[in-house]
Every structure is written in C-alpha cells, then in structure tokens.
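User: Could you go from structure to sequence for me? I need the amino acid at each position, not a summary. Structure tokens:
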C-alpha cells in the first residue's frame, strides 16, 4: 500500500509508480557505467577486477603483485648488455704501452750510464798532423807517420791528434782535435827504394808534394802506430800550439762505441 503522504505529493498512485521506476533505472545505469570504467582501468594495469562492488583486495598484496609484474616485464624488455671488447683491448694496449715506456726509460738510463763511462777527461800532449793524414792515421788506413826527426819523447804515449790545414783545404776549414794516437817505435829509411816499397804503409804517392827527395832531405823517419781511435765528436784546439804540437791539454773525450 502506498503512503497517503506520498500519494498526496505525487497526486496519484500512477504518478508515484512512474517516479519510482525512473529512480531505479537511473541507479542501475549509474552502477553499470561505474563497473565498466573500473574494469577498463584495472585491465590496463594487467589485473582482473570484479564487476560488482565486492570487497577489494588488500593494498599490500595488490601493490606487491604489481611490482613483481612490472619488474618481470622490465627484465624481459631489457636486452642483455654485450661486453665492450673495444674497451678491454684499449686497456690492454695501454698496459703494453706503459710497459714499453718503462723498458725505454730503462734503456735510456743504461745508455746514459755507458756514455758516462765512455766520456772521461784526459790530459794529453798534442801532435800536429796535416790534413788528410790525420784522418788516415786515426782510421787505420795509414800505419806509418813519416817525419824528418825521430820519435824520441813521444814513444808509448797517448797523444791528441790535432788536424791542421794541409793542401787543398776548404776555406771554411776549422782545426780541431779528432782522435788519440800512440806510437810504439820508429825507424829510419835507408834509401829511396825502401821508401817506395813501404808506400802501402805511409800512403805517400810517388811524385806528390810529400814525396821523399833525398837531395833536400837526407834523412827520413817512420813512426809506427801502436793504436789509434777516432773521437765521436771533434774537440776544440788548444789556445796555443807550436810547429810540432802543443803542451798538455785537458779535454773531455767521447770515444766511439
């Protein structure tokens, strides 16, 4: 039975039934629309949700499931990182380069030590030798030095070889100490025939300006070379020199390897 108050408000029973049906229809439509929107939202997150307004799962288990699903998808999407072989090769090359640098520095130290051993100061008397005989004596091509006087005090003594200006010397010629020489004996040429036979030792050609002329020079002596060494770098000449040589001069010599 309908309440007299509702009937008085709506006017009749027919009008009341119409309004009640309309209210039920709106409520049903609103409920269906709500369930549809909720189902789409949950489907987008990858979980199932009930269509009705039932009790929702607890927040802790729901969030944990989402986190596990997200981490699984992230591990599936991310490809495995390939090892960078170029960086390993670069580090290996760097190590090899540093090792080679250490070896090079070690060799440099050994070379400097050897240079210090080979370089030492000497104080020797100086012997003047004209160009080109000085280089021939120091290289071993000339074994006998020819002079007008005997060896005397120069025997068995190391001497600086000072190259002086000879014939056909260039204009920019500079005198200098080019090596160290030692003579062990001397002898006197008895005749011109013996002097000619010894040409391969003294290297003086027949008819040259240095050739022996017995009429002008009755005596000629030969100094036999015991040892000779050419310096790696020429040294400056002494400040004062005489016709034969100079007094004892101190120089730091660098002998060849």
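Assistant: Here is the amino acid at each position, in order:
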């Amino acid at each position: 039975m309908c309440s007299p108050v509702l009937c008085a408000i709506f006017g009749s029973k027919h009008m009341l039934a119409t309004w009640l049906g309309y209210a039920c229809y709106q409520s049903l439509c609103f409920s269906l629309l709500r369930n549809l929107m909720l189902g789409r939202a949950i489907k987008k997150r990858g979980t199932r949700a009930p269509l009705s307004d039932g009790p929702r799962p607890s927040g802790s288990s729901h969030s944990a499931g989402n986190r596990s699903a997200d981490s699984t998808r992230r591990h599936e999407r991310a490809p495995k990182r390939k090892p960078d072989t170029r960086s390993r090769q670069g580090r290996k090359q760097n190590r090899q380069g540093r090792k080679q640098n250490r070896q090079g520095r070690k060799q440099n130290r050994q070379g400097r030590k050897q240079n210090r051993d080979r370089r030492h100061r000497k104080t020797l008397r100086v012997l003047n030798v004209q160009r080109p005989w000085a280089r021939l004596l120091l290289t071993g091509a000339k074994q006998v030095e020819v002079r007008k006087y005997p060896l005397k005090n120069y025997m068995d003594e190391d001497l600086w070889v000072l190259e002086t200006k000879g014939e056909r010397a260039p204009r920019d010629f500079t005198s200098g100490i080019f090596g160290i020489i030692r003579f062990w004996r001397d002898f006197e040429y008895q005749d011109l025939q013996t002097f000619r036979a010894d040409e391969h030792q003294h290297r003086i050609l027949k008819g040259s300006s240095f050739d022996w002329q017995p009429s002008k020079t009755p005596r000629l002596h030969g100094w036999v070379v015991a040892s000779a060494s050419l310096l790696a770098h020429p040294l400056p000449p002494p400040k004062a020199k005489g016709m034969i040589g100079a007094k004892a001069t101190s120089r730091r010599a660098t002998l060849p390897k």
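One structural detail worth keeping in mind: The two ends are 134 Å apart (CA to CA).
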